[in-house]
Design a protein that fits this description.
Organism: Candidatus Sphingobacterium stercoripullorum
Catalytic activity: fluoride(in) = fluoride(out)
Distance between the termini: 31 Å
Membrane topology: Multi-pass membrane protein
Radius of gyration: 16 Å
Shape: globular
Mean pLDDT: 93
InterPro entries: FluC
GO molecular function: fluoride channel activity; metal ion binding
Largest sheet: none
Strand content: under 5%
Number of helices: 5
Order of helices and strands: HHHHH
Length: 123
């Protein structure tokens, strides 16, 4: 149990730090007209989860260490669904309905495709 908690904590810390760096990078180059940083981490996080799950299944890695470190820890700290929801709420308050629609649809569709692509890449 302690080893699992440590794996989740280390992965989560790394994921959170990387999420912050992506946020800084995206705001530096693209501003805040579209929440690009959150979109990037959500899609990339979906891809990483798919890739990791594909590796675990392909190589029959049933010990759970990789799953806890990367899928639960890293991706849990890296992806930002709560930020996604909050940013959509802010866009709604500002009346940016077309941006909301684009952001939600592209995040969900591209995220699902990224999970699939990650799993296919392992095969």
């Amino acid at each position: 149990m302690l080893k699992t908690l440590l794996l989740v904590s280390v992965g989560g810390g790394a994921g959170s730090a990387l999420r912050y760096l992506v946020y800084l990078w995206s705001n530096k180059f693209y501003g805040d007209s579209f929440p690009l940083g959150t979109w990037i981490v959500n899609v990339l996080g979906c891809f990483i989860i798919g890739l990791t799950w594909g590796v675990i299944n392909r190589y029959q890695l049933g010990d759970g260490y990789l799953r806890h470190l990367i899928m639960v820890g890293f991706c849990g700290g890296f992806t930002t669904f709560s930020s996604f929801a909050f940013e959509n709420f802010k866009l709604f308050e500002q009346g940016n309905y077309s941006i909301i629609l684009l952001y939600i649809l592209s995040s969900v569709i591209v995220g699902i495709l990224a999970v699939w692509w990650g799993m296919i890449l392992v095969k």
